[in-house]
Amino acid sequence: MIRSRPLTLWGAIVAYSVLLSVLSIARHWGFYSLEDAGAFPQMFWTTLHGKFLNTNLPGLGRFAFTSHNYLADHFSPIILLLLPVYAAWERPEVLFVVQSIMLGLAALPLHGLVFDRFGDRFLATSFAVAWLMSPFVWQSNMGDFHPDTFQPLFIFGAFFYLLRRRPGPYLTLLGLSLLCKEDAFIHVIAIGLFAIAALRATALGALTVALGGLWALATFKLLMPLFGGGMAYVDHYADFGRTLPRVVTRMLLEPQRVLAHLAQPAIRSAIVWILSTLAFLPLLSPLGFMAAALPAMERLLTNLPHINTLSWYYSMPVLPVLFVAALMGTSNAVRLVWRGEVPRNGLRWIGMLLIAATLITGVRLGFGIVGPFALRMPGPTLSRDGWLWVSGRDSVIRKLLSGVPESASVSTSPYIAAHVAGRFDLGIYPYRPLDRDVILLDLYGQKHPADLADYRCEIVRVLSRGEYGVVEYLDGFVYLRRGQATARNAEAAGEVASIYEAEDLIADGFEKVFDLGAGNKQAMAVTRRRSAHLLYGPYVSLPPGRYQVAVRITAHQRSAGDVATLDVTADQGSTILAERTIRGPDLREPGRYQQFVLEFQSERRLHNVEFRVHARGAPDLRVDRINLYPGTLALEVLRESCPG
Ligand SMILES: [Ca+2]
Hints:
By secondary structure, this protein is of the alpha+beta class. The chain contains 25 helices and 19 strands. It has four domains: about 280 residues, no CATH class; about 25 residues, no CATH class; about 110 residues, no CATH class; about 140 residues, Galactose-binding domain-like (Jelly Rolls, Sandwich). The site of calcium ion has 10 residues, from strand 11 and strand 19.
């Protein structure tokens, strides 16, 4: 399979693997990789230090953020093959490289499959290139590290040998794909049924189905329980019932319920998008489409939005089977249109159609090969813009990280976890246990998985209890250690309490934009000239006292006139407490953030206090965040809104 492939294909595979390695490492260095990117390095590290595949990181499922053996949660023994590679480098980056190579190499058997079928290099290369440019492949590649991304190589390889009727390598590759994840039995059974129905390979197909079924039994009843786990999916399908027999019966016997579930807008558009990357060719092969539908249903019928929209890496076993369906669909089209006598031009058109479909979908979705240019990754879990760029703040956190002792247990933000993965006890703040040696948090950054109010309350609670002291408080990063002196705790707590990120306030005419100069790399910006631009909130109650409100803003163009009016109001806007107009000359340097302070005083308790920014027609006015001082009083505010 390897020797006969053309140089252009190898070139494309190498280019893909290098580019995606670089992009996924850049994403990691820019602190966008999430806890799953830390889970695998952590379990390799614990294995090398005597605790087999132990981790407390993955944030989903019944083992979320608790210490467990990974094989209890997900049966992916294939990751053990990576252990020597990790042992050599001991860095998460090495896993991103392996993942990019595995997804790139999948194009090799895909090319072989298409070439075997049509004998046409252009069409075979088009399929391979469409794979390498697919927005869904890119999203899987950029979504941390997951062994599910190894499956395409094995699935394409299995189909390649299935069509050549070579049971040995076919079964070996299917076996490897079963080792990637406990749910792989579903696509293995689907491939077996496809072999029987479409290829009349009855014996081999039946053997495949039996292999898938037996492996599922062995995994859920024997192997996973061995590590303290077992089948744990049923709660993903709450729309269909609470027990496995009920869920399965309803899916089979109540098609109207299945259709109603699939008709939800987000799920419906995920189906349309994944088919449109393949120019809807899979629909021309009903049997191929059915083979992809089986693993697809496992995802689409869940009630978890990141899974049922095939976001993140969840398109993985579905997409390769859909590519095979597209190949079978092309085959059927050729039979229908040209009655088997295909002119070379015809195949060329299909190849170009496929590449055009991939590109158009990529542009429309803003990722795939166009991703680095569009600078955004959509999907519920990957919505942080500008993942490609490392900011000055990232080097601040890197400096703090270098001071964390290797032996310390750490509780941190999800996107910091992968950078401190080499330790036995590593958790996501504020998930339990809360008594780890070190707490390291980004106060401006992403608040996932807790919501903003809970997160702030939790930090203030820790700071006021005094078990932890502030080691360093730098540019919104707070580094706490158990038993440390607490002299700086009040100051840090005040800072925590005082921050209102502009992107968390309510906006009318402002848009959230990526901005390296802003905390959290996000600001709210006026991107179009419109009459009303208003940022407002957060409707807090304040005790009597004297306050300062600092608004951090900039504009990217110089202007002579009014830029913005800032005000502080109470009683839902009806009482104006302070007001200030910012004029063009007040902003000293375009693009550089400045703080503008408003002061006010009240003898009575204030309710529904809002900090508002009215843009006065200046294009590209940006608001990063608003701070309320003094922090001690703001702390009182926070305590009131914090439960317990
Ligand atoms: Ca911000």
